[in-house]
Amino acid sequence: MTPSPDRTAADYIALENRLGAHNYHPLDVVLTRGEGVWVWDVEGRKYLDCLASYSAVNQGHSHPRILKALVDQASRLSLTSRAFRNDQLPLLYEKLNALTGYGQYLMMNSGAEAVETGVKAARKWGYEKKRIAEGQAEIVVAAGNFHGRTTTVVSFSTEEQYRRNFGPFTPGFRVIPYGDLEALEAALGPNTAAFLVEPIQAEAGILLPPDGYLKGAAELCRRHNVLLMLDEIQTGWGRTGKLFAWEWEDARPDVVLVGKALAGGFYPVSAVLSSAEILGVFRPGDHGSTFGGNPLACAVAQAALDVLVEEDLAGRANETGDYFRSELSRLKHPGITEIRGRGLLIGVELNQKARPVAEAMQARGVLVKDTH
Question: Does the pLDDT at position 1 exceed 70?
Answer without folding.
Answer: no
